[in-house]
Amino acid sequence: MNRLRMRLKNNKGFTLAELLITVLILLMVSTVVAAGMPSAVNALGKVVDAAHAESLFATTYTALRDELSTAIPNRTITASGKSITYTDSDGIVSKIESKDDGIYITKPAAAESGNERLLISKVAATENLYMTFQDIKYSSGIVEITDLAVNNSKTGNTVNNLKKVMIRIVGYEAIKAA
Question: Which residue segment(s) compose the domain that 98 sits in?
Answer without folding.
Answer: 32-177
